[in-house]
């Protein structure tokens, strides 16, 4: 049986975080979306789908780098949210 290594990452302590929806098979992400941080690890480990603030549904496949393009609808919604913690 062949062993499969999965990369790990440290998740920042924020309420939401941008993630990609690159569904084209292209290696470079087209746009990142804001999703609940509690769902990011679950999606990365179990392969479940997450729902972005804008309603986009996708599995977490990669983390954004500084300066990555962010979905304008997710950003608009996120900027309108009241400050607070991520309770779920």
Kindly describe this structure.
This protein is globular. The strands form 2 sheets. A two-stranded antiparallel ribbon has the order 1-2. A two-stranded antiparallel ribbon has the order 3-4. The protein has helices at 37-46, 72-80; strands at residues 16-20, 32-36, 49-51, 57-59. The longest helix has 10 residues, at 37-46. Residues 8-24 have low confidence and may be disordered. The chain is 22% helix and 18% strand. The chain has one domain.
Secondary structure topology:
Elements: E1 16-20, E2 32-36, H1 37-46, E3 49-51, E4 57-59, H2 72-80
Antiparallel strand pairs: 1-2, 3-4
Write a compact overview of the structure shown:
With 88 residues, this protein is an alpha+beta fold. The chain is built from two helices and four strands. The chain has one domain (16-80).
């Amino acid at each position: 049986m062949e062993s499969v290594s999965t990369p790990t990452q440290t998740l920042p302590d924020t309420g939401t975080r941008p993630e990609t929806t690159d569904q084209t098979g292209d290696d470079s992400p087209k746009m990142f979306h804001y999703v609940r941080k509690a769902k990011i690890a679950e999606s990365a480990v179990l392969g479940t789908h997450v729902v972005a603030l804008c309603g986009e549904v996708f599995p977490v496949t990669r983390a954004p780098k500084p300066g990555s393009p962010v979905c304008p609808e997710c950003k608009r919604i996120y900027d309108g949210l009241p400050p607070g913690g991520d309770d779920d």
